[in-house]
Amino acid sequence: MRDPAWVSRVAWISLAVVLLWPLGVATEFKPWVLLEPDNLRVSGQFIASFWPLAHSQEFLLMVARDTWRTVAMATAGVTLALVIAIPLTLLNTGVLSVSALSGRMARGPFWVRQTIRWLLIVLRSVPELVWALIFVRVVGLGPTAGVLAIALTYGGMLGKVYGEILESSETHPTQTLLRNGSGRLQAFFYGLLPTSAAELTSYTVYRWECAIRSSVVLGFVGAGGLGQQMDNSMKMFNGGEVATMLLVFIALVALADRVSAWLRKALG
Amino acid sequence: MTPRTTPAANQPYQLPPPLFDARCKACWFVVGILLLVVASFWSLDLQWAQFFSWDAARSMGRFVGEFFPPDVSRAFLKKVAIGAWETLAMSVLGTLLAAVAGLALALPASRLHHADRGPARSPTRLLLNALRAIPELVWAALLLISAGLGPFAGTLALALHTTGVLGRLFAEAIENAPPGPGDALRAQGVPNGRVFLYATLPQVLPQLMSYTLYRWENNIRAAAVLGVVGAGGLGQLLAFHMGLFHMGKTATLIGAMLLMVAVVDAASHASRRVLTR
C-alpha cells in the first residue's frame, strides 16, 4: 500500500531535522555520552548506592527537621508575599477607581496604577533563585534569604493574579457602592471581596503548594532546608541519603498537593 | 411558676454570630493557618534585625550601586548572547523531548475507551507523578553525575520534569476527548493504534500543542536558572560572575534573562491565540 502523502511527510521531517540540528549542537546533545563505560560505571555505582536507604535515627531526625524547615520557609515566604501583594492589589485594582466611574481614569491614578503594574512585573520576572543568590550575599547563608526570595517573587505573582481575579469578578455592586459615596475600602470589603474571596483563597493555597517546591530548590543556593542537605549528600556521592531525601520530598509534594486540593474543594 | 411561653414584646435584635464556632469549618481553617504561620516564623530564627539594620541597608545600597553601570562591552555581550542561545536551545529541545515522551507515557496512563480497563494506568501515573514532583534543578544536580557539566544535563533535566507534567496533562486530555469518532472506527474493527491516530489525536492535538507551548514558556524560565548548579546557559554565567562579585556583568545577565522571558512570553501568548482561535 502506498502512502499518498509521503512526499509532504518526508519534506516536513527533513525540515524538522534541519531546524533541530543547531539546537542539538548548542546543547551539546550527545546521548551516547551517557553510555560511555566511565560514565556508566560512575552512574551505576551512584544508583547502586541508593539501596539501602539511609535510615539511621540521627539522619532521619535531621531530615524531619529540614522538612519542617522547608515547609516553614514556604509558609513564611507566602505570608510576607501577602503583605506585599495585598496593599499593591488594593492600589492597583482599576475597579476601585472613583474617577473611572465617569469615563476615563484621571491621569494621576492611571500612572500610579501603571507604575505598580510594572513593579509587579519586575518582582515576578526575576526568578526566585536569582533573588535568593542576591540576598545570600546581603544577609548571609540561611533561611532569611530564601524567605525573602519567595516573598518577592510570589508577591509579584499574587499581586498580578489577585488584580486579574478582582477585575474579572462581578463589579456592579462595587460600582454602585462607590457611586453612592462609600469609601474605596468599604466598597472593597462589602462589594468586591465577598464575590471573589473563595477564588482568591484557593489561588493563594495553590501558590503555597508551589512555594514548597521552590523552597527545596532554594536550598541548593544555601537557603537551608531539604535542598541544602540534598546538595551536600550529592556532592559526597552518598546515594542512600539522596534516595531517602528524594522519597521524603516526593511524599511532601504529594501531601501538599492533597492538602491544597482538599482545601480548594472545601472552599468551593 | 409556669415557664413563660409568650415571646418578648419587642424582639431583641439578632446579635452577630460569635467570632469562633466549633462547627464552622472556615474558623478551624483560619486557626490552622494562623498556627502554621506563627510556628513557621517562630522556628526559622529569621535575622530581621540584621536585615533591617543600618549595616545591611548600607551593604544593600552598595551592592545595588555596584550593579551600575552594567557591563555592555562587545566581548561580554557576545558571551551573553551565546549563553542566551544555549538557554533557548535547552528549553526548546527539552520541551520537544518531553512532549514526545509525555505522549508515549500518556497512552498507557489513560483509558482509551469504556471497555479499556487500563492495566498500566496506575503504575504509569505513579511514574509520571514522581517525575513531576522532583523539580528541574534537582534533576539537573542528579544528572550532572552521569552526563557531566554542561547544557546536556540541563536539557535532560528539563525533559524529565516536563515529561511528568505533560504526560499527566496529555492523559487527561485523551481521556476527556469526545468518544464518538473513536467508537465509530472501533465498531468497524479498526485496531487501537489507528483509532488513536485518526480519531483521538486530531481532536486533542490543539490542546496538546497549547499545553506544550505553555510548558515551553515555563521551561525558558527554568532553563535560565538551571545553570546555577552547573547545567549550562545563562544561569551558569550568572553563578560564575556573581561568585566572583562581577556586579556589572551580573546586572547585564539579569537584564538578559528578563528580556528573554518577556520576549518568549509575548511570542507564546501570540501563538497560543492563533492556535486556539
Structure description:
Chain A is mainly α. Chain A has one domain: MetI-like fold, CATH 1.10.3720. In chain A, about 80% of the residues lie in helices and about 0% in strands. Chain A contains ten helices and no strands. The longest helix of chain A has about 40 residues. Chain A is extended and about 80 Å long. Chain A starts with 5 loop residues before the first helix and ends with a helix. Chain B is mainly alpha-helical and about 280 residues long. Chain B has one domain: MetI-like fold. Helix content of chain B is about 75%, strand content about 0%. In chain B, helix 10 packs antiparallel against helix 11. Chain B starts with about 25 loop residues before the first helix and ends with a helix. Chains A and B meet through helix 1, helix 2, helix 3, helix 5 and helix 6 of A and helix 1, helix 2, helix 3, helix 4 and helix 5 of B.
Gross morphology of chain A is extended
Q: Helical residue percent of chain B?
A: over 70%
CATH class of chain A: Mainly Alpha
**Uncertain spans of chain B:** none
Specify the number of helices of chain B: 11
Provide the residue-averaged pLDDT of chain A: 87
Q: What form of chain B results from the Cα inertia axes?
A: flat
